[in-house]
Request: fold
Amino acid sequence: MLPTKLTCQATLNTLRRYRHPACLSSTVSCKEEWLPRGFLTSRVDPGLRSICSPVGVSQHHGRRSFSVSAAAIVNAAPAPLRPYLRLMRLDKPIGTWLLYLPCTWSIALAAEPGHLPDLGMLALFGTGALLMRGAGCTINDMWDKDFDQKVARTAARPIAAGEVSRLQALVFLGGQLSLALGVLLCLNYYSIALGAASLSLVVTYPLMKRITYWPQLVLGLTFNWGALLGWSAIKGSCDWSVCLPLYVSGVMWTLIYDTIYAHQDKEDDVKVGVKSTALRFQEQTKPWLSGFTAAMMASLVVAGVHAEQTLPYYAVLATVGLHLSRQIYTLDINRPEDCWKKFVSNRNIGLLLLLGIIAGNLWKGRTETVVL
Reply:
């Protein structure tokens, strides 16, 4: 057993010496069968858990095939930058998508009948989502350093692994927030004030898991602020008859996907004393998720009615409802890999809803033209 362990350590050291990307990435697919039984533990050096292949490189019968991915781009960045790019989760873009999509719904709903959403505004909000998601992850990891070191899935995060100090993270956070402020200042005064009001949620969300079993609710309130901000950026202020139900639908959506996500870590969460809706609901998770789905769909209908949406929008809503129902019905809360698969599929739900809003708005313009 000992020689095998030494061989693994020697291999790892050799790979690190030549800066092999397999040992410089936190986003890896571990080949655990290469290591002796019992060699992997939740406390071991993350590098020793992964004599591994980076995302973006796959092996088939001894051949390598390369694909472009966010993780591969991060791996190709200069070595000093990689910990910071991983700190802002640039290698895992699903969180940025989930933050960005409610913004796109709101911008698309606010478009004039028969017109596409403002592409410049979509690009601006995309930049803001990338920066604010990165800032949120930085704040989260600064708060959670001690917790992250005790959980296998998060032990390799840059602050927990010692690649970035808290002071360095604080400086990096200041840079991200400064750039995000520059994006916010491109909007009207109403939207600037509205956007600034969300900062308290961004800062305090990471603390909620220590206080309540409903941190996913606070995350929903934070992540869906763009549902309010997108409309006001286009119209100059919020129409609460549209924006509020849209915001509520986004919060319900977050409760769905982040509860599923939280089931991946529930055993570790119990050990370190972290709370979540996954621990609150336990075996009753599916009934709760079904209730959130019903509330989400009802809120989207209300928003659609007040925004005078048309048939394509409601047809897509039906498809979204079916997708969520199937997601919940087939979910295995005790299989982390299935939870992750269901979680990331929510990007497709958000994109589908965006297409429905755009199609409904174009149909609306066609209908008004026919009437005239």
